[in-house]
Design a protein that fits this description.
Radius of gyration: 29 Å
Low-confidence stretches: 122-140, 166-172
Distance between the termini: 72 Å
Number of strands: 13
Strand content: 35-45%
Largest sheet: 6 strands, antiparallel, barrel
Mean pLDDT: 75
Number of helices: 2
CATH class: Mainly Beta
Helix content: 10-25%
CATH architecture: Beta Barrel
Shape: rod-shaped
Number of domains: 1
Length: 172
C-alpha cells in the first residue's frame, strides 16, 4: 500500500523544482511639494515681433530636481510655457512687451503644474525717444526680446508624487 505522504512529498519536490519569478516591485515614489522652486531657462529665443498672447513656448529645467537625494526631474526636462502678454513695438517710441509663464512639465503620465512668470520690455532711453520723435516722426520703439537660455524661476503649484528618473548620490 502506498503512503499518503508519498503524494505530498512529490508535490513539494515539484514545487521546489519550478523556478520562482520575483514579483515586480513598484518604483519608489517621491513627493514633490507645492512651492518647490524649479530653475528654468528658455529653450528658444522669444520676441514680441513673432509671438502673440496664447502661444505655447518651450522651456527646460536648468538643474536636476532632487527629492530625498534622488532625481525626480532631470536637468533639461522639457517644460511647456505660454505667452501671457505680447505687445508689438509702436510708433513714437512705444516699446514692445513680452510676458510668459511656465505651465507644466510632463513626466511620463504625470503633469507637474507650475507657477511663475518672466517678462521683458524693449528699451530705449527717454531722451532718445524725445530727440528722435522730433527729428523723425516715423520712429518706433524696440521689440521685446527674451534670448534663448534666459533664466527664470518657477515653482510647483500642486504637490505630486513622482517616480525617480535616475538614482543619484545624495548631495551634501
Amino acid at each position: 500500500m502506498k503512503s499518503p505522504f508519498r503524494f505530498l512529498a512529490i508535490a513539494v519536490a515539484m514545487m521546489l523544482l519550478v523556478p520562482t519569478v520575483p514579483l515586480a516591485q513598484e518604483p519608489m515614489r517621491y513627493l514633490l511639494r507645492a512651492g518647490t522652486s524649479i530653475p528654468l531657462v528658455t529653450a528658444q529665443p522669444l520676441s514680441s515681433k513673432t509671438h502673440v498672447k496664447g502661444d505655447l513656448v518651450k522651456l527646460k529645467t536648468a538643474a536636476d530636481i532632487m527629492v530625498d537625494g534622488h532625481v525626480v526631474i532631470p536637468k533639461g526636462a522639457e517644460v511647456v510655457g505660454q505667452v501671457v502678454e505680447a505687445r508689438a513695438k509702436g510708433a513714437m517710441g512705444m516699446n514692445g512687451k513680452l510676458a510668459l509663464r511656465p505651465l507644466y512639465i510632463r513626466m511620463g503620465d504625470d503633469f507637474v503644474r507650475m507657477g511663475g512668470a518672466v517678462s521683458e520690455k524693449g528699451s530705449v532711453t527717454a531722451g532718445a525717444v524725445i530727440g528722435l520723435a522730433v527729428l523723425s516722426p516715423g520712429f518706433t520703439g524696440r521689440s521685446a526680446v527674451i534670448p534663448e537660455g534666459t533664466a527664470l524661476e518657477a515653482s510647483v503649484e500642486h504637490g505630486i508624487a513622482l517616480s525617480e528618473v535616475t538614482l543619484a548620490v545624495p548631495r551634501n
